[in-house]
Specification:
By secondary structure, the chain is α/β, with parallel strands linked by helices. Helix content is about 55%, strand content about 15%. It has helices spanning about 5-40, 50-65, 85-90, 100-105, 125-135, 150-155, 170-190, and strands spanning about 45-50, 75-80, 115-120, 140-145, 160-165. Strands 2-1-3-4-5 form a 5-stranded parallel beta sheet, with helices on both faces. Helix 2 (about 50-65) packs parallel to helix 7. It is globular. It starts with a helix and ends with a helix.
């Protein structure tokens, strides 16, 4: 393995993060305000994604429930990706497109937040989840890349899209993780004050 190839990954990742800094700061701040407002009003945050996006959704929910970098009371967050029994029961018969929408139909309420993690943005189950969240009068925050895809197109003017300016999936996922850390830190700062 070439050391130069490894170094190039680091350079590309750092360059994209710096490029995205100005473009993403405002939507991230808006997402933090939306999430904090929902939590302050007794609402919950749901998160979903596929593949690496599912792992990011679970990481986000875990950091709200457990803690991020400071101790605080647990916050109500649910990763719709985490329960394999529910996912397989809902997708029986080939209905995987509705696995997240059906969970939101059962659990979601007006004022809750749906965080969608979609690097490509073309997954039917994520698009259906966004539609169901709208039906339930939930707030939608979408972490996307590659222009947002069909997930981006499904968003309304009251939704928040945090779209990483890259087509390369690995780089998009790296920035999504940084955004998730920003969201968690921002919520903690609003709850506990700046440290």
């Amino acid at each position: 393995m070439s050391v130069e190839r490894i170094q190039q990954h680091f350079r590309e990742s750092a360059a994209l993060k710096l490029e995205a800094l100005d473009a993403l700061a405002m939507p991230i701040a808006a997402a933090i305000d939306t999430m904090f407002g929902a939590l302050a009003n007794g609402s919950r945050i749901f998160a979903c994604g596929n593949g690496a996006g599912a792992a990011d959704a679970q990481r986000f929910a875990a950091q709200l429930i457990a803690s991020f970098e400071r101790e605080r009371p647990s916050l109500p967050a649910i990763a719709l990706t985490a329960d394999s029994t529910v996912l397989t029961a809902l997708s029986a018969g080939g209905a995987f497109d509705s696995v997240y929408a059906k969970q939101l139909r059962a659990l979601g309420h007006a004022g809750d937040v749906l965080l969608v993690v979609a690097a490509a943005g073309y997954e039917a189950n994520l698009i259906e989840a966004v539609a169901e969240a709208h039906e339930r009068e939930m707030f939608v925050i979408a972490l996307t890349g590659n222009g947002g895809g069909r997930v981006g197109e499904a968003l309304t003017e009251t939704d928040i899209q945090i779209c990483v300016p890259s087509q390369r999936a690995a780089r998009v996922h790296e920035v999504h993780l940084l955004v998730i850390h920003c969201l968690c830190d921002g919520i903690d700062a609003m709850l506990l004050g700046e440290d």
